[in-house]
Design a protein that fits this description.
This protein is of the alpha+beta class. It is 33% helix and 26% strand.
């Protein structure tokens, strides 16, 4: 799914897409953690990059991997969040909720990088 990250609805559209895929495939236990992590990664792209983004969802019988690619060569930064800050906790949230997360080393067409997370069936709380 490609789209403009300049559109403030991008996080919701991507969240709804991931939710729909998981519910269609009867993977309800993964819906909450996967939609939270998807929302955080897409929001980061929306706030910190320009251009378009691509959402990639990969499923195996027991795992989901969601990647959000963008055109920026800059790596994601997880600054220490201040206690009273309204933002700055997205990557820390993903790190806490996901089983694994990282930055894709493979390029995807015009996209420079992809930030991804994985969740396993039965491993999500």
């Amino acid at each position: 799914m490609d789209g403009s990250v300049g559109d403030a609805t991008a996080p919701k559209v991507c969240r709804d897409f991931v939710r729909g895929v998981l519910l269609t495939l009867d993977r309800e236990p993964l819906v909450m953690p996967a939609t939270l992590c998807t929302s955080e990664l897409v929001t980061n792209v929306h706030l910190h990059t320009k251009g378009t983004a691509m959402l990639r969802v990969q499923l195996t019988p027991v795992r989901i991997r969601v990647s959000v690619y963008d055109e920026s060569h800059d790596p994601p930064v997880a600054p220490p969040a201040e206690a009273t800050a309204c933002w700055g906790r997205g990557l820390a949230l993903v790190a806490e909720v996901a089983d694994l997360w990282g930055v894709a080393v493979d390029r995807a067409g015009r996209f420079a990088k992809g930030v991804w997370f994985e969740l396993g069936e039965g491993e999500a709380d």
